[in-house]
Amino acid sequence: MPWIILFLAGLLEITWAVGLKYTEGFSRPLPTALTVVAMVASVVLLGLAVRHLPVGTAYAVWTGIGAVGTAICGILLFGDAATPARLACLGLVVVGIIGLKLVS
């Protein structure tokens, strides 16, 4: 169950990171409110997960999910570059996340 909670926390990290783009510098009230709710929920779920997982592992997985997911959303939603080198680096992050899961 802690890994599921951590995964959900990572998904919410993606949500708030992408949400930052839609807030337009926190000038749009609804996207700002939704982004802040996602931020708080993400950190709360991370806090619940670290009750049962090593903090270093949980934090690395949380940020890895957020980084990879946000980069993919940037490519799909905002036309960010999807160069082979960038995709390979994202793949390395995924391998690291899987590795941490396997050894924890």
From TrEMBL:
GO terms for molecular function: transmembrane transporter activity. Gene3D superfamilies: 1.10.3730.20. InterPro entries: EmrE-like (IPR037185), Small_drug/metabolite_transptr (IPR000390), Small_multidrug_res (IPR045324). One of its GO terms (biological process) is xenobiotic detoxification by transmembrane export across the plasma membrane. The keyword Transmembrane applies. The chain crosses the membrane at residues 33-50, 57-79, 85-103. It is a multi-pass membrane protein. Keywords: Cell membrane, Membrane, Transmembrane, Transmembrane helix, Transport. It is found in: Cell membrane. One of its GO terms (cellular component) is plasma membrane. This is Guanidinium exporter.
